[in-house]
Amino acid sequence: MAPILADSTKPNVPERENYVNSGFVNINNPHLDMLTEDILYHFDLGTKTHDLPSMFGDVKFVCVGGSPNRMRSFALFIHKELGLDGDANNITDICAGTDRYSMYKVGPVLSISHGMGIPSISIMLHELIKLLHHAKCRNVIIIRIGTSGGIGIEPGTVVITDVSVDSFFRPQFDQVILDKVVVRNTQLHQELAEELLQCSQEISSFPTLIGHTMCTYDFYEGQGRLDGALCSFSKEEKFEYLRKAYDAGVRNIEMESSVFAAMCHLCGLKAAVVCVTLLNRLEGDQISSGHNVLVEFQRRPQQLIAKFIKKKLGTSS
Ligand SMILES: O=P(O)(O)O[C@@H]1C[C@H](O)[C@@H](CO)O1
Ligand SMILES: O=c1cc[nH]c(=O)[nH]1
To answer: Which EC class heads this enzyme's classification (predicted)?
Structure first.
């Protein structure tokens, strides 16, 4: 068993100040100072090949989500919502030189895909956080707009995460570093979550709530599904587990929030996780709603975040 450590990478400032440290991103890696060039390999960007401050210095909102198509749609949507000049269809993928992630910039909004699961979003976040640092961005808000499985709530409900919990309902992310397990905090920014909930009250077309989000390493066995290629537990055991999760305050399950919360927290980025629920896991495992319903569900977090961004920019009517 690897030794378990409390996190030693924590910036040496009180919790609250972590978010107001001149508004810059807190990078906590002394080795970076030794690099003459930093290549953000999975973005196909670099400090010598690209002028990152002029390309990204004005970014104030970063929205991330699993699918490249969703993040392109979000970029087109936010372009329209912000009433920006030019033809949105000309928006190009900044990461077109690689097929790992897609990235679109629309005014002060960056929309990036992160793929599925903790390893994929974690790589993207390392490079994104360094990009924000190199670009000297300040006061950035980062929001994951995703999909999830709900527990005991109506499909289509949008859940704003207060804390991400692991499969044992613990508010922590266990990062393996060398031969040690480093335990990291997975609290999301509470005021931001409240602000988003308030914003949602102005949208009457779908329910929104704040709750715990369980982050797993897998979609099937890891989320207690009976319909994977492998399953070693009974239907009764599945329901007992999901009911325990509900009683612990979990309202939805997805696969990225824990590392997202942990890394953003450590780097002083104000972060939120806003996921729509595609089904109620107490009613089934298969995502059987029609294509149009699922498309409409996926737009819900986008609508909420567009409203929030417009409010923040003072452009909402
Ligand atoms: O960002 P998305 O909505 O793709 O994230 C959830 C969690 C997994 O990555 C994926 C599973 O279908 O959906
Ligand atoms: O059930 C679900 C649906 C979407 N994403 C998940 O991780 N789980």
So the answer is: transferase
Q: Per-residue pLDDT tens for 201-226?
A: 999 899 999 999 999 999 999 999 99
ipTM surpasses cut 0.85: yes
Of the candidates 31, 6, 27, 33, the residue with the CA atom closest to the CA atom of residue 266: 27
Among 255, 283, 293, 300, the mutation site with the greatest number of ligand 2 atoms within 8 A of its Cβ is 255
Residue 196 sits in a domain whose CATH number is: 3.40.50.1580
Query: Domain of 71?
Result: 4-313
- In 30-157, DSSP assigns E strands to 39-40, 45-46, 61-65, 103-106, 109-113, 141-150
Q: What is the pLDDT of residues 136-173, one digit of tens each?
A: 999 999 999 999 999 999 999 999 999 999 999 999 99
Distance 212 CA to ligand 1 centre (A): 17
Domain count, the chain: 1
Question: Which residue has the CA at smallest separation from atom 1 of ligand 2?
Answer: 149
